[in-house]
Design brief:
The chain has helices at residues 11-27, 44-49, 66-74, 98-111, 142-148, 151-167, 200-216, 253-260, 287-297, 312-315, 320-330, 347-360, 366-380, and strands spanning 52-55, 78-81, 117-120, 122-124, 127-128, 172-173, 220-221, 223-226, 266-269, 303-305, 335-337. It contains 13 helices and eleven strands. The strands form three sheets. Strands 7-6-3-2-1-11 form a six-stranded parallel beta sheet. Strand 1 (52-55), helix 3 and strand 2 (78-81) form a beta-alpha-beta unit.
Length: 388
């Protein structure tokens, strides 16, 4: 289903979807994993499917929508929403208005027997999917808030973001960015005003405030991009990003502090290469970086989510199978395929088939899959129902 032929839902179907999902939410006070999905012998298909988050096209969905088939048949763990379709160069993707988006997220949750992560990149400022032209409130950049460094102001904007997201059924925001603004000319961080500051203490206090407010609204967050993207001179969306000569250990400080505070829901990786951390693999595929530093040194046992696995920093240099294999072995629990640098409608099917083969040939152990599934299940049990 393409955006062009999927702009409008028939009125009767619209109200049927809205009524049926709200009714289910009223009689079920909180989404949770069914008891049979809490057992260690839950099917491997479900466990693997839960490790996948994908993007899709369409302002609405129905039973025939490919994304609904991915949810029902392949048990994917979540979806990510966008307002603009990059491959098509089209302003029609998933977001048109608060009312439309509310119905869309309800329908997606209704299609799943397991609560979905419904995610978005709503950082504010330049990285802003919920624009004023779609009737959403205005937002400001992290750099703006960091320059003011007034936590009351930060709470105000964080609260507006959290209220907006939870009100339309989004439960996971891929924010805040905790990269240090060590290179203001960085094309993907500094120039887009995505970093709070070059001062790690400012970044820690600003990001922690955002996370605190998000949690008040039962909204999950993902700090990004580990082990630090702020010093890069290149854009990992476009190709290899080598930070060997620009990265500094101080870039780890915000991650370490927020993890130690117990506030961290997820950590998103960076597709940056640093031969001083790993002479062969970029961070997303690096056991030394993710397991060595994040898991062992920082004692982090929460979810690690990859950045976009379809970005050129990964897809240009590694096959899909190699990228998936190395990411999982490195420590990644959730593999993100936004389908918005390229669009591959069957990406969930292919990714799941690859993971199953890796388990079958003992390249990836079942215990490794179980660890990711348990982390995902634990975090999803914190999700609150969308109040209709």
């Amino acid at each position: 289903m393409t955006p062009q032929n999927d702009k409008h839902l028939h009125t009767s179907n619209y109200f049927f979807v809205l009524f049926s999902v709200v009714f289910c939410l009223i009689i079920s006070p909180a989404p949770c994993f069914p008891d049979d999905l809490k057992k260690d012998d839950t099917s491997l298909d479900i466990k693997i499917g839960q490790m996948i988050i994908v993007g899709f096209r369409g302002l609405t969905v129905d039973n025939q929508s490919p994304i609904v088939q991915d949810i029902r048949k392949r048990h994917i763990g979540g979806v990510i929403l966008f307002d603009y379709d990059v491959p098509l160069k089209s302003p029609v993707r998933n977001i048109a208005s608060p009312k439309q988006l509310k119905v869309l997220t309800l329908a997606l949750q209704k299609a799943s027997s397991i609560p979905l992560f419904i995610a978005i990149d709503q950082e504010g400022g330049r990285v802003n999917r919920l624009k004023e032209k779609y009737e959403f409130p205005p937002s400001v950049s992290a750099q703006y808030l960091g320059s003011i460094d007034n936590l009351d102001t930060t709470r105000k904007y964080a609260g507006e973001t959290a209220k907006t997201l939870t009100g339309i059924g989004i439960n996971l925001n891929f924010a805040p960015v905790v990269d240090l603004n060590t290179n203001p000319d960085n094309p993907v961080i500094g120039k887009l005003e995505r970093s709070f500051s070059s001062d790690p203490e400012v970044v820690i206090s600003q990001a922690s405030t955002f996370i605190d407010v998000f949690h008040e609204y039962h909204l999950l967050s993902a700090i990004k991009h580990f082990p630090g993207h702020g010093s890069s001179t290149g854009d990992s969306h476009k190709g290899l990003t080598d930070v060997t000569n620009t990265w500094s250990p101080i870039e780890l400080k915000p991650f370490d502090a927020i993890i130690k505070s117990g506030k961290c829901d997820m950590v998103m990786t960076a597709h940056v290469f640093n031969k001083n951390l790993d002479p062969k693999w970029p961070a997303t595929l690096s056991y030394k970086t993710l397991t060595g530093i994040l898991r062992k040194d920082f004692h982090y046992d929460g979810i690690i989510i990859s950045d976009d696995m379809q970005m050129k920093a990964i897809s240009t240099f590694y096959s899909l199978e190699t990228a998936i294999r190395m990411a999982i072995l490195a420590g990644v629990d959730l593999l993100l395929f936004p389908n918005n640098s390229v669009f591959e409608e069957d990406i969930a099917t292919r990714a799941i088939a690859i993971i199953k083969r890796l388990v079958t040939d003992n390249t990836v152990s079942r215990e490794r899959i179980n660890k990711s599934y348990k982390r995902i299940r634990k975090l999803k049990e914190r999700l609150r129902p969308f109040p209709g």
